[in-house]
Amino acid sequence: MVRGWRWGERTWTKEGAWRGGVVLAALGMLALLVLLGRRHGFGAPEYLQFLLDGLRGGSIYALVALGFVLVYRVTGVINFAQGAFVMLGPMLTASFYERGWPPALGLRLALAALLSIGIVAGIGVAVERWALYPARRASPLTRIIITVGVYLILEGAALLLWGPYAKMIPSFTTLSLADPTLRFGELRIKAQSLWIWGALGISLLTLALFFGRTTLGKAMRACAVNRLAAQLMGIRVDTMSTLAFGLAAALGALAGIVLGPATRPTYELGLELGLKGFVAAIMGGLVSFPGAVLGGLLLGALENLWAGVTMAGFKDLFAFIILILVLLIHPQGFAGSEAEVERA
Amino acid sequence: MRSPWVGFVIGVPLILAIGLLEAWQPLGLSLPALTGGLLTLDTMIRAGLFTIVLVGLNLLMGYAGQVSLGQAAFYGMGAFFSAILTVRARALGIPPELAEGWAWPWLVMFSGAFLVGLLAYGIGRPILRLRGHYLAMATLGLGVVVYILLRENLGFPHLNLTGGFDGLQGIPRLRLGTLTLWPAWRYYFLVWLFAFGAIALGLNVVRSRVGRALRAIHGSEMAAESVGVEVPHYKAQIFALSAGMAALAGSLYAHFQTTVIPATFGFGPSLELVVMSAVGGMASIWGAPFGALTVLLVQEILRTQLRRLIPGAQGELELIAFGLILVLIMLFMPEGLTVWGLRRLRGRRMARGAAPAGR
User: Can the peptide bond before residue A102 be classed as cis, meaning omega within 30 degrees of 0?
Assistant: First the structure.
């Protein structure tokens, strides 16, 4: 899983044709982008700028996608409520930060963020225990609908607590609302982007170490490979499922928090990020962590290029067209296996 | 022999009685007065519209076992098809003697439902190859794509066909010859006529060869295929039927509200439809009107009663209540309220025989 790509040893005939089709479609889209961009007179610097800005959003999608993959691998559930975890992270952080304690701003922000991540992880655990564990034998449809219900409850609770107003999280660098812009020649990078990329990198590293080196991580991997066998080996699979939900919720909250200063989080933040994180996870095949990250980055970058050359209102359209295309053409993504598609 | 058609014996007189009550208002009595303001004719009309959508959705989800989290898209397609072709008729170059006539909106409505069904068949063939989670997400994606297209004027802002965020206003009332189907009670009869038609259609489909094929697909696609059921065709067919029914209801909605905005057909409404379907019971045709009415009543109660208890509350309680209902129903009675209630009435004897297909 974390170790490398799963291109597999399939024969090239039919698979190759599919892959060729995907590559052709991708090239066609790139050509379309360039063609549309020429109307605006875009050159290389503009494209690079779109790409960089896109990679920022893409890193967030990647973090959210990691949560989807984690839960799906261990429990076989697509957790619709992941978006709600992403929304709760920054909302909680902002309201703790507003309390004004401790006086040192950096410490206050760090404490608020850690506390929020902990709380959201707890909520994730509760969701698994109370809503999904009782339905562990139900069909996928039933379980999807349950997670949808959980999403609605969490979103409603956020609306009840914080109202429809946007919250503020200060930039991590300056601890104020202004976020400095770094310049590299013609390229501009917001300082917060560096924090986002850092969070993604550290999360990936931690996950790799956790799953590769610790007994607990290996036990979770065993559950993902074969639940029954894992159980026979004395692994508590139910505990692992709960843990997976907690971890995914924490990842989601982290994603929301590092994005916080770059957007103005409201109770509605979860829907879009949750869906796009899912698209990223699907692009990566839904079972692979590197696939999910690559999917997220690719989605973010392409989406931003697309929005740059077409109408801004069409930005969201791109992700969902990609979703449908990937599902139709190559549902195992670029890193999954056919077996996973059959299992779903 | 308990036939599902018995439902008509109870349902039709009840609906008729409510309509006649509203039409004549004997002794100053009216529906809101009798129900303490909970039930209005408006709610009843919307329940009828949702019934039409839900019969299709139940056939698709409960009987054929195919998830759709984007059904509101087809509802919206129907509504906007009717709205565009009546409001923008002149701009589209339709001769006025045709567009002004009373038959035009009806023609638009039925051809809209047919076209949306056809489109859904085309989309359904590839998309319904997916299963479980993947299908759920693909239909969700489809719903969002349609919503964005409606919101963004289908990508042609200069034509301004859908009116963007604000949608379209001034959709004409339906007429039958010289009879305008308004005030509301007249429209109510029309909507419930269609609703009962949809229910009758649903009951027939379920008991037909197609219905058996669908249940076989739900049980096991491979097994169904092995005994000669043409799985992709049947799945796409029922998808098309449910889409067509949703589109018809959408057209009726457009002529009822006389305004349509894209937000009515977004992701939230699609979920609302799933909630209604789950509450009524996915694998039951009579669950459709029951689920629609129950959810609309819960909404109404939340709106009126709870706001009195918790001042300042807006839509959040609705969200929480919907979520709770959804989770609890899925956990404790996944076959839905209708089936659960009927089983309670009949005792446990029937319980094993009619295994809930919605599970």
Answer: yes
Q: For B242-288, write each residue's pLDDT tens digit.
A: 999 999 999 999 999 999 999 899 888 898 899 899 899 888 999 99
Q: What is the pLDDT of residues A208-262, one digit of tens each?
A: 999 989 999 999 988 888 888 999 999 999 999 999 999 999 999 999 999 988 8
pLDDT tens-digit series, residues B136-194: 888 988 998 999 899 988 878 788 888 888 999 999 999 998 898 888 899 999 999 99
How wide is the angle at C-alpha B229 spanned by C-alphas B225 and B235, nearest 5°? 95
Q: Is the dihedral of CA B275, B276, B279, B283 positive or negative?
A: negative
Q: How confident is the model at residue A46 (pLDDT cuts 50, 70, 90)?
A: confident
CA distance B267 to chain A (A): 9
Q: Which distant-in-sequence residues (6+ apart) come within 8 Å of B20 by Cβ?
A: none
Note whether B30 and B20 are within 8 A (CB).
no
Q: Which of A140, A142, A311 sits opposite B334 (nearest CB)?
A: A142
Radius of gyration of chain B (CA): 20
Please state, in angstroms and rounded to a whole number, the distance separating the CA atoms of residues B185 and B21.
9
Residue of B nearest to A332 (CA): B134
How far is Cα B145 from Cα B185, in angstroms, rounded to an integer? 36
